């Protein structure tokens, strides 16, 4: 029996409305990632077929094939399901995170992987990103964030912070940090920019305290406040507020050392030290960053050529097919290849923002900005840590790094948005 005419027409219309340019960029990034995963594990002394299941590229091919099936399911399912079931999906992932915390075996000190058997493992922390994006978008579609009350603020904070809180308990700090990206999406929906300013200022003070002697930093803050008061004499009327701000900043400056030495774990302290001065211990905590920069720098302008990277071949950079996959591009494809890859990500992010802005519903728009924020955070930190501008926190490069959980997570994240976008005209009709 042939399908009903209405259904066939609806399916045809959805295919016509798909943002094929975004789909093309997705497949291009996945294909380039697969080739570079092979380059990262390639050994001239033991050449293995790129599709062999004995190496990471062959295993990644299985995850890519599974992602294709996943894409079909995401596009076939009624797009309204993602909004209607946002809270149940979120609750299911929260439950899965708690189960993982209890039953997962420690791997490199982290209880974040579920063993599914047959050597297959799943990291629920990756799936928590799209689930949180759905739940937060659903919640924001029911309120006006510009006129929200304190109770609504706390609800949104709880939705956003519960998953990373459990993930931190799993000792997976890097994955938990990603949830800070949600603030960018909330800013688009009307949250006060004061939160971004305070957060950015706190991060800047933290970094500067590690780089500059405290006395000079305090003098700088004092001069800046004095200069602001001189430029705007009305601030003198608020001298109590100014003094309180100065006291808070000075307190933060003096608390950084305590936080680093007494709150952070030894491996986290080493990540901070590697960010500040990796050359201080090039054979210890500075090894990853030092070798990463050597690999990227040795590529020069054009690169050494595919499968010709010496740093890659001889395993100087650890985790090169996952966290440090960008090194392979830098060494083998040089500045040109690195620039093209960065341009692809920038184009993808721009495209996602355009998709978000043309949505007819608050849910669709907010979800689109959540997708853009998460991918941007991953891209920024991953590339930054390979060139020594961000701490090494184990964050994969979207669609590019080896790993099934990561690829599935970003595939789900992106193609839910593509499915919502393909049906945006129905939102207008409603």
From TrEMBL:
Domain of life: Bacteria
Segments crossing the lipid bilayer: 20-41, 61-77, 89-108, 165-187, 194-212, 218-236, 243-260, 335-354, 366-393, 399-420
Major location (coarse): membrane
Membrane topology: Multi-pass membrane protein
Signal peptide annotation: none
Localization, UniProt: Membrane
Protein name as catalogued: Cell wall polymerase
Keywords, ordered alphabetically: Cell membrane, Cell shape, Cell wall biogenesis/degradation, Glycosyltransferase, Membrane, Peptidoglycan synthesis, Transferase, Transmembrane, Transmembrane helix
Cited Pfam families: FTSW_RODA_SPOVE
